[in-house]
User: Fold this.
Amino acid sequence: MEFTAKAIAEFLNGDVEGNPDEVVSDISKIEEGKKGTLAFLANPKYSKYLYSTNASIVLLNKDFNLEEEVSSTLIRVDDAYKAFASLLDLYSQSKPEKNGIEDLVFIDKSAEIGKNVYLGGFSYISKNVKIGENAKIHPQVYIGENCKIGNNTILYPGVKIYDGCQIGVNCIVHSGTVIGSDGFGFVPQEDADFIKIPQLGNVIIEDNVEIGSNVSIDRATIGSTILKKGVKLDNLIQIGHNVIIGENTVIVSQTGIAGSSNVGKNCQIGGQVGIVGHIEIANNVKIAAQSGVPSSIKKEGEILLGSPAANISDTRKSMVVYKQLPQLREKILELERELEKLKEKN
Assistant:
C-alpha cells in the first residue's frame, strides 16, 4: 500500500515540511533509507544520517533543530518513536489475516474452538481444550489437555503448552516457547541419587502478555506459576516453578528466575539477571543487566546493579574504588616501606 506524507501526518497529528504529496510504500532505517520508504529519527546519535538519507519521508520530533537542508520530506510529531510505533502497528494490521483450519490438524472431539480461529497444519489440540474467538494457532503448535486459550491470542509455530495451562486474551507467544514443563524439583538421596518431585500445578498467563521465542516457563509443584496482566518477556528466559511476576513487568533476554520467587509489578529486569528462589522483589524495581539477586528487595522503586546486586549508586562508587585498587596497593606498599625506614632510624 502507498501513503502520502499528508495522509501520514493527519494520522499522527503531525506537521509536514516539504512535499505533502510525497509517497512511500515501505519502511527503512534512516541510515539505510531508500527512495519510496519512510524512516524515523528519535535517537540523537543518528542525527547525522538525516542529511544523507535517501528516505522519501522522515519522522522526527517537533523540537529538532536542523543544522542544514535535507532532501527528505519531514513530518514533525511530538514523539517520533511513539509515532513510528503507531505506523508499524497500522502497517501490521493491513496485512491479510490467516484464518480457517488447514489440512493435517488434529482436534480432539471434546475441544471447543471459537469463531474465526486459525489452526495451522500439524498443530495438535488435545482433550477438553478451549480456544477463544479470533485466536491464531500456527503450524506445529501442541496444546495439552484441559488448556484454555483466550480470544485474539497468537501462538506462533512450534509453541508447546502442557496440560492444564491457561493463557488469557490478546497474548502473543513466539516460536519455540514451552509453557508448563516440569519444575526443577529433586530430592537428593544418601547414595547421591535423586528422587523426582511430581509437579502437579500449572501455568496461568493473564491478559495482554507477550512472550518471546525459546522461553521456558515451568509449571508449579502445587498451585500455579503466574504471569500477570501486561507482562513482557524477551527471548531465552527461564521462569521457575511457582514464580509470580506482577503486572506490566518487563524482563530482558537470558534472565533466570528460580522457583517460588515473587516479582512485583512495573519492574524492569535487564538481560542475564539471575534471581534466586523464594525471595520477593518490590514494585517498580529496576535491576541492571548481569546483576545477581541473592535476597529479597523490599524497597519500592529501588535501582540495583552488580553481583550481588546493591543500590546502583553504591555499586558505582564501589566500582570506581575497585578500578583504583592496583594504584591503592602500590601506595600502601610505599607507605609500609617508608614506615620501615622510619623504624630503622629510630
